[in-house]
């Protein structure tokens, strides 16, 4: 009888037994961090690009990326060794921070960095994942990754029209070098170490927000709300005056909705300013951002159908200009606890008046807007205390909000009302002109 063979393999360990799972989990974790940091940084494009359609698109992509990150985290948590923290490791964070660029950079060049270098590399990373994982054993991840690949491919298609005529070669090369040093997001390619002459821009010029937001070719002003029908498009007393023609109210509320572009622009500044926030905070901010971008689209898309030439509608810049002077938790407090929380009574009156028109589409848009806004106030209650803690604010929430309101009024005196009308009153859309439009 022969003696049992002596194994030369190392003694079995729990880690060795689960090596196949651990390896795939390691990749999922990297993918989670990449998606998460895209949300933190690509959001800075929103207020820097001028074309509203591009703002809307970036908001949508930021939201979808937050969704990818969330599903990756959910799946990751089913697997051993995903980890309980949510922090993004430094080498990944450094590249995304680099991609943010400086306030002086051309935003379309920066967009090319995100969309022609970092996101294609993410797509390549997802494809790599599919190639190396076991399709049956890891089916749940495979299904997610297949969906994300389709999303990433669509994002690149959707952004393509905005890339034309932008020379971003130098910037793309710069980011490519930074990424090659990692060998791609998953380290799946050959590493090309950084040359000694590579200079990280973030060390030279740390990023800060621009003092005003970009609205591209559109005319601008300080505020669209006012009291004078010869001057302002949204005449406050008209909104609640039962004698106002409902068609005028519908036009005014669409302008109001379109101007939620303000909210898009200033909310988008909060991600980069809260780098240590839990992922769920950024996830809800991303949702909030995308909701506001849809609300703005309600107006942007409906107004031309009602005969409004968008080149006559001035964009109001005051809210961004004032809020960007405040730290992120104060911005977020004003948004959720003041502007949104107090908008419901007037909007309810407006909705009742618009319903007189039997305009099902308008009723639908306004109802969804109201529903979303209720969620936004809920997000505010959930996240404001956390954001205050992140920023070292120790006062009770109510006291802080009251003080912030006063500070806003003070800053409005300094930074508000500084944007002159781009258009003379004869050319710009005003309450009077809305009245004429509505009666045609
Ligand atoms: Fe909104
Ligand atoms: Fe909102």
Structure described in brief:
63% of the residues lie in helices and 2% in strands. It is an all-alpha fold and 440 residues long.
Explain the overall architecture:
The protein has 440 residues and is mostly helical. The chain is 63% helix and 2% strand. It is built from 19 helices and four strands. The protein has helices at 14-17, 19-42, 52-78, 90-100, 107-132, 139-163, 169-180, 201-204, 236-240, 246-258, 261-267, 270-273, 279-305, 318-323, 328-340, 344-354, 360-390, 397-415, 431-439, and strands at residues 220-221, 225-226, 234-235, 315-316. The strands form two sheets. It has a two-stranded parallel sheet. Strands 2-3 form a two-stranded parallel ribbon. Helix 2 (19-42) runs antiparallel to helix 3, helix 5 (107-132) packs antiparallel against helix 6 (139-163) and helix 10 (246-258) crosses helix 13. The relative contact order is 0.11. The mean pLDDT is 96. The structure holds fe (ii) ion (FE2) (2 copies). Residues 260, 263, 292, 295, 369, 373 line the site of one fe (ii) ion.
């Amino acid at each position: 009888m022969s003696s049992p063979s002596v194994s030369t393999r190392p003694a079995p360990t729990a880690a060795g037994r689960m090596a196949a799972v651990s390896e795939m989990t390691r990749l999922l974790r990297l993918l989670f961090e990449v998606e998460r940091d895209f949300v933190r940084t690509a959001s800075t494009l929103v207020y820097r690009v001028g074309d509203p359609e591009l703002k809307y698109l970036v908001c949508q992509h930021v939201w979808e990326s937050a969704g990818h990150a969330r599903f990756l985290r959910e799946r990751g948590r089913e697997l051993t060794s995903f980890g309980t923290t949510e922090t993004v490791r430094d080498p990944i964070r450094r590249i995304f921070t680099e991609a943010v660029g400086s306030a002086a950079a051309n935003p379309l060049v920066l967009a090319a960095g995100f969309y022609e270098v970092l996101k294609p590399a993410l797509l390549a990373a997802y494809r790599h994942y599919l190639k190396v994982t076991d399709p049956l054993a890891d089916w749940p991840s495979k299904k997610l990754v297949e969906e994300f690949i389709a999303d990433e491919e669509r994002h690149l298609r959707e952004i393509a029209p905005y890339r034309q005529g932008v020379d971003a070669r130098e910037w793309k090369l710069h980011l490519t070098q930074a990424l090659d040093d990692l060998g791609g997001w998953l380290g799946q390619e050959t590493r090309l170490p950084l040359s000694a002459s590579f200079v990280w821009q973030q060390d030279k010029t740390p990023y800060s927000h621009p003092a005003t937001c970009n609205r591209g070719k559109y005319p601008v002003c300080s505020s669209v709300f006012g009291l004078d029908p010869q001057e302002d498009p949204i005449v406050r007393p008209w909104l609640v005056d039962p004698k106002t023609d409902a068609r005028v109210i519908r036009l005014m509320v669409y302008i109001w909705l379109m101007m939620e572009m303000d909210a898009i622009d200033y909310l988008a500044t909060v991600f980069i300013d809260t780098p240590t926030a839990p992922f769920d905070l950024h996830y809800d901010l991303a949702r909030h951002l995308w909701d506001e971008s849809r609300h703005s689209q309600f107006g942007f898309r409906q107004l031309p159908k009602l005969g409004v030439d968008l080149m006559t509608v001035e964009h109001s810049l005051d809210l961004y200009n004032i809020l960007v002077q405040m730290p992120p938790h104060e911005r977020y407090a004003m948004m959720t606890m003041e502007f949104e929380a107090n908008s419901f009574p007037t909007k309810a009156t407006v909705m009742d008046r618009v319903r007189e028109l039997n305009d099902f589409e308008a009723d639908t848009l306004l109802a969804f807007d109201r529903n979303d806004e209720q969620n936004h106030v809920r997000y505010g209650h959930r996240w404001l205390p956390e954001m205050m803690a992140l920023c070292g604010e120790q006062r009770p929430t109510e006291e802080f909000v009251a003080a912030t309101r006063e500070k806003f009024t003070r800053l409005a005196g300094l930074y508000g009302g500084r944007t002159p009308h781009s258009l003379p009153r004869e050319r710009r859309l005003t309450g009077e002109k809305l009245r004429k439009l509505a009666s045609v």
